[in-house]
Amino acid sequence: MSKSRVWKFHNDVDTDQIIASQYLLLPNIDEMKGYTFESLDPEFAQKVEPGDVIVAAENFGCGSSREQAPSVLKALGIKAVIAKSFARIFYRNAINVGLPVLVCKELYDDVKESEEVELDLSKGSIIYNEKQYACTKLPELMQTILDKGGLINYLNNGEV
Prior knowledge:
160 residues, 19% strand, alpha/beta
């Protein structure tokens, strides 16, 4: 297991806060990703590093159903999003684009921004400050979709 730096966000982070609607006019995800979380932290896209994780409170990804929200996070190299709960459509879109999303009720209250956690997606566990937290262990099919890089890659590889 490798360690990942934490970026911490509050309750009800909506898809407009993840990627504002005016940037959806840009031609591709690579151009959009530089504006991720612009309204919450204008320098987030420049500071985040591949392998970092997002830890959020309740209802992460609420709002509109734009697939670009999890896509820009994945494009920035976010390893996973861990939250107390997710908006259903964001959760499904994240799996579809190949971004791991984990529900963990206890971690948010304990973890501090910029500290490190260790994830074991296959076991559904997180270690922070030598304490182990249980999180959702994805069903085998959803884990396979993630392993293939998302639903389109899964389908294109003739897995169905």
